[in-house]
Amino acid sequence: MSKFIFSSPRKYVQGEGVISQLGDYIAELGNNAFLIADDVVWGLIGEQVASSLKAKNVKFHYERFNGEASQNEILRLADHSRKAEASVIVGLGGGKTLDTSKAVADELKQPIVIVPTIASTDAPCSALSVIYTDQGVFESYRFYTKNPDLVLVDTKICAQAPVRLFASGIADGLATYVEALAVKRSHSKSMVDGLPTIAGMAIAEACEKTLLTYGYSAYVAVAEHAVTPAVEAVVEANTLLSGLGFENAGLAGAHAIHNGFTAIQGEIHHLTHGEKVAYGTLTQMVLEQRPDEEVARYIRFYRSIKMPTSLKELHLENESWENLVKIGALANSDGDTLKNLNPNLTAEDVAYAIRAVDAFSRTVI
C-alpha cells in the first residue's frame, strides 16, 4: 500500500532580534535547559541566551560541542545532560552542532530546541541527523520519531556570520528541488519513509524559486551584514523550505555525492557542506541528462555567490581516477540516497560525471 507522509517542526520562529524571546518559548517546554554550542557560538550569543532564560526563571547548563557529529560525542553530551537533570535540550550553532543536539535529545527522550546561528544548512527543521566518525567520514543517517519542538532563527545573528556560510546555505537549498524531482520520478521514498507529498514537492519548488529569484541580492546584503526582505526570504528558504522540502520530498544524488567526498583525504574537507553539495548538484544534473542550458544556469548562479563549479575549486584537480571512483562507490553505498536517482548507476558513472561537470563548467561564460 502506498503511503504519503508529511513531517515538520512543532513551531518555527524567524525574525530580527527573536533571540531575546528564546526564554519565552523554552519555558513552554521545560524549566532546566541543557545548552550545546561550540566556543565561537557561545562567545557570540551566550550572554543573550543566558539573559533570556534567566528572565523566565529557566535553569540552564552549558556544555561545549567538540566539533564532530559522532556517536562518541553524542554519548558524551548525553551523559552530561543526564547529570544536569535537564528537561529540554537546546542546540545553538551550525549543522553538526544541531544534528548532535537532536541525537542527544533522542537519547534522553527530551524536547529539542534548535537555534541556528548561520543560515548555512537545512539541518534545523528535520527529524534526522547525519552521523560521522570521529575523523569526519560519513557513517549514516539517524532518524527520529519527531521533528524539533522549536526552531528559532534570529536573522540579525545569521546576517553577522561570514557571507560564505550564507552562500553555502543557498547552495544546499538549491539541491532540494533537484533531488525532489529525482525521487518523485523514480517513485522512491522520502526521508520520512513515505512517497513525496504534494505539499513537500510544492515547498521544494518554492525553495528553488525563492533562491534563484532573491539569492544574489540577499548574498550581497549579508556581505554588508544587512537584514533586508530578500535576506528574510532566503533565510526562510535555506532553513524552513529546504528543510521541509528535502525531508518530505527526499534526497537523491547531490547529497550522496557530497557524502562520497568523505571517502578521500585532502583540502576538499576545508570546504563547507554547501560548497560540496553545489558540486554534487551539478554532478546529479549531468547524471540525469539535464539540458545544457539548465546546467549552465546553475553554474552561472553558483559563480555569482562564489560556490565551486570546477575540480580546481574543490581541490580535486590532481585527484586520481581511482579516488574519483572511491567517491562514486561511497555515494552509491546502500545506506545513502544515490539509488533514488538511478539504481543502475556505477561508481565509474559518478566519477565520469564529476569530471564532466568540470569540463562543461570551463565552457560556460
TrEMBL record:
InterPro entries linked to this entry: ADH_Fe/GldA, Glycerol_DH
Residue sites binding glycerol per the record: 122, 172, 255, 273
Cofactor, free-text remark: Binds 1 zinc ion per subunit.
A GO CC annotation given for this chain: cytosol
EC identifiers of the protein: 1.1.1.6
Pathway terms, separated by semicolons: Polyol metabolism; glycerol fermentation; glycerone phosphate from glycerol (oxidative route): step 1/2
Cofactor(s), by name: Zn(2+)
SUPFAM superfamilies, per the entry: Dehydroquinate synthase-like
Gene Ontology MF terms: glycerol dehydrogenase (NAD+) activity; metal ion binding
Domain Alcohol dehydrogenase iron-type/glycerol dehydrogenase GldA as annotated: residue spans: 9-155
Keywords: Metal-binding, NAD, Oxidoreductase, Zinc
Catalytic activity: glycerol + NAD(+) = dihydroxyacetone + NADH + H(+)
Residues the entry annotates as binding NAD(+): 38, 95-99, 117-120, 126, 128, 132
Protein's name in the database: Glycerol dehydrogenase
Organism: Sodalis ligni
